[in-house]
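Figure caption, in words: inputs first, then the predicted bound structure.
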Amino acid sequence: MQIFNIVIAGVGGQGVLMASKVLAESALASGMDVKQNEVHGMAQRGGSVISFVRIGDQVSSPVVMPGSADLLISFEPLEALRYSHYLKPGGRLLYNRVAINPSTVAAGMAVYPQDVEEQIAAACANAHGIDALAIARQAGNGKAVNMVMVGTVMKYLPMDEEIIRDVVRKIARGKGVEVNMKALAGGAEA
Amino acid sequence: MKKIISGNEAIALGFGDSGGVFASGYPGTPSTETLEEVARLGQVYCEWAPNEKVALESAIGGSIAGGRSLATMKHVGVNVAADALLTLTYTGVNAGLILMVADDPGMHSSQNEQDSRNYAKFAKIPMLDPADSQESYDMVRTGFEISEQFDTPVMLRTTTRISHAKGVVVPQEKIAPQVGQWVKNVPKYVMLPSFGKLRHVEVEARLLRLQEYAETTPLNRIEMRDPELGIITSGVAYQHVRESFPEASILKLGLAHPLPTRKIREFAASVKRLVVVEEMDAIFEEQVRAMGVAVEIGKNKLPLCGEINADILRTALGKEATATTVPVEGLPQRPPVFCPSCAHRGLFTILSKLKVFVSGDIGCYTLGALPPMNAMHAVIDMGASISAAHGMAKVNAIAGREEKPVAVIGDSTFFHSGMTGLMSMAYNGGNALVIIMDNRTTGMTGGQENPGTGETLQGVPVRQVEMVPLVKALGIDNVAELNTYDLKATEAAIKKGLETPGPYVLIDKNPCILRYKIRKLAMSVDQEKCTGCRACLKVACMALGLTASGEKQKVRVDPNVCNGCGVCKQMCKFDAMHELEGENYANL
Ligand SMILES: Cc1ncc(C[n+]2csc(CCOP(=O)(O)OP(=O)(O)O)c2C)c(N)n1
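Bound structure (thiamine diphosphate present):
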């Protein structure tokens, strides 16, 4: 199997790490080799976050190079655009349409591009945006945006959907299971 | 059973599975999760020390008492612990001792990019350099064996992409905790000059024995493929080499110090072109060249700064890079910021307004240096805020300048190494305003416990160190409390501290909202009353933003992000900001 490269982008606090964990665990449970890597240094909310998941028969480097991602999942539109160059030609982009202001915009030092979605469409012919926050809220918790996004990409992954659901069940435990399962299902339909 | 875990988690697991008994460390990215995971696994005693020197010294004690011990820290932490390390190499160990150090090439979250391999050379001790999670796990066991066999501390060195990258690990059979005798041995453990001299001779002899070990250990392996290209490498760089040059022959060094000279010669002789691939310093390359072996490509083509990746390698070796795509330009940056409702925000809003010189320190509050605050003007190393402010004040006095410097430091950093600077300021008749942001946690690295938290790493409730009596005991008379959520009071308190001659300490006790999960109702802006003056935007909160362009852009609050601290509200002269009615809590 050729290596399948996934990039997950978002804003600190949105649960990029948890989504990455779900994908990596699912790949392992499917009997594939996997490396997952994000650089998490600072605990603060609000910074740009990017994470890599690489799946294959044998994976060496934990890093996805620009121009080589099969799939880019972004929890925020501006971050989708920022990391769109990680996609390889023909790569697929799924993003949450709900914008979060960077501090530079909040402080009036920069402007959030109003045409961000047009720019995304121009950068990637295979892009699809959803309102993940609304779906997460419907599932019972606005924080479940990450699981909505995992739900959205399930059908494009080299893993069985049931394995992914199993992993989420295991990780979420207790009360979170129902919300997360609904979030996965909501994402899958969007 | 197979697991997918990070290098840090693998080291923690390896420690528990390899007879580990005692672990101490100080948080620091990218090393932090190692000790957190030891605590989570719950099988071995572990603790946070207030700084890296204490952590290593405690581990030394653990080893002398006969327990396999581990100290964890980030690269710069070794500077703090270096005094202990450079003599520990003389005493050697009783039970095995590993110093785990995590380097940060690329400076993802560090103040410098130092290469810890220099310390292994400096201290003349073995250093293990794992290339993935499995090796991180295995090398803990090997490290203890080497430590005990050669009577030496062992450094286990990771980099960010080893510590934080997750890979598949198959654990080995678990061995029981290794606790041996506690023996008195004066000439071995008392480093008086007369004993130290003898131990130094032993250190040099030990290094020769380790060199022999390096020749034969499977930690260093030759992978012969195409003899056209031979690459000497280690750590994550090995993975990048495998990725970009799958056909190349490789000498993979699992032991980064000391080097196997015969093996290197043998490898060099069996390949046509010899390349050395290492991140940061030219440590391997210099040693290989000093052996008289020709290196075609090393730091002449590869960077000394930052990380190496597959594309950098391809380009350096004359292959084409995979990346043909370019990033979209001109997008707004998204740097990390104070969390919504962080107590640091109010402080820097006022410091920025007062335009004072701020001698800063390392923690979340360092973000106060960034625009639009621009309110931090020197940051060197942990604890330096106070001592540097003291030096500034002395020179200011000599130069006849009136201005009093302000030092800003967090609780964890104060306990780490700020206390001695404050004591010096009191002792030497200094003149600075010191603001301690006592949020009862080590925030920047993810909210770890410290002596002020009231809880240990393993969750045991303990007495909190109280800041006010501590500061007074160090010799400071003028100590007052601060509440940075109240901007007017904060401004008044800072002004008073600046006007009062001599050392003056202000302590803010508001807890970290992230660690203590403090949730408040979101704010909203009355669009009728907002004039679009943007005064509130000066607080640099990501919950604020301008409405879509129109006649006059006004401010709006994102209720998904706002955590209702009300600092922005105090900036508003038009009474346009209010708490939202009903249940509305931020999603962050
Ligand atoms: C010698 C050294 N050890 C560890 C670190 C990692 N580090 C960066 S900031 C920080 C502590 C921050 O805690 P605190 O001072 O309480 O401030 P807060 O982030 O909570 O505001 C640590 C441990 C470092 N930079 N240098």
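Chain B touches chain A through 71 residues (CB under 8 Å).
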